[in-house]
Amino acid sequence: MAQSITVGIKHLLEEARKEVTTLPLDEAVRLSDRDDHVFVDLRDIREINRTGKVPGAFSCPRGMLEFWIDPESPYHKEIFNQDKTYVFYCASGWRSALSAKTAMTMGLSPVAHVDGGFTAWIAANGPIETID
């Protein structure tokens, strides 16, 4: 028997976007070099190697996000224990919207995500750090 999915990705994204601050690209670029913001790249390392990343962004694979945020987790990363604004981004803004909502549910605050993701960042000629 086929699965009967009752809540699809469109609904999940719609719900996330109601709760999460979405940064317009120009604002995200302006904030990207500030010390009071942590940009979190959720893309797979292969994506980052292929296209680069926001300069200074912290790489956190989407599959590890909850484990790295939770201070009780053996995988916790101290970068998620700072009094800063966390700005999530991915390729197009879908993973980042869902991730930002999850981070907020866990208690991380303040949190935002980049509208259009890294694809829009590249199109707008935002600064890029390449990975060697």
Describe the structure.
By secondary structure, this protein is α/β, with parallel strands linked by helices. It has a single domain, classed as Oxidized Rhodanese, domain 1, CATH 3.40.250. The protein is 38% helix and 14% strand. It has 6 helices and 5 strands; from the N terminus they run αβαβαβαβαβα. The chain has a 5-stranded parallel beta sheet with strand order 1-5-4-2-3. Helix 5 (94-106) links the parallel strand 4 (85-89) and strand 5. Helix 1 (9-19) packs across helix 5 (94-106). It is globular and about 50 Å long. It starts with 8 loop residues before the first helix and ends in a 9-residue tail after the last helix. GO terms for molecular function: thiosulfate-cyanide sulfurtransferase activity. This is Molybdopterin biosynthesis protein MoeB. InterPro entries: Rhodanese-like_dom (IPR001763), Rhodanese-like_dom_sf (IPR036873).
Write the layout of secondary structure elements.
Elements: H1 9-19, E1 21-23, H2 25-31, E2 37-41, H3 45-51, E3 58-59, H4 65-69, E4 85-89, H5 94-106, E5 111-114, H6 117-123
Parallel strand pairs: 1-5, 2-3, 2-4, 4-5
GO molecular function: thiosulfate-cyanide sulfurtransferase activity
Protein name: Molybdopterin biosynthesis protein MoeB
Domain Rhodanese: 33-130
What is the CATH topology classification name?
Answer: Oxidized Rhodanese, domain 1
- Flag low-confidence runs: none
Report the C-alpha radius of gyration, rounded: 15 Å
Largest sheet: 5 strands, parallel
Q: Structural class of the helix and strand makeup? A: alpha/beta
Read across the widest sheet, the strand sequence of neighbours is: 1-5-4-2-3
User: What general outline do the C-alpha atoms trace?
Assistant: globular
Order of helices and strands: HEHEHEHEHEH
- Tell me the total number of β-strands: 5
- Total domain units: 1
Name the average pLDDT: 96
Specify the CATH architecture. 3-Layer(aba) Sandwich
The helix content is: 25-40%
GO molecular function: thiosulfate-cyanide sulfurtransferase activity
Domain Rhodanese: 33-130
Organism: Roseibium album
Protein name: Molybdopterin biosynthesis protein MoeB
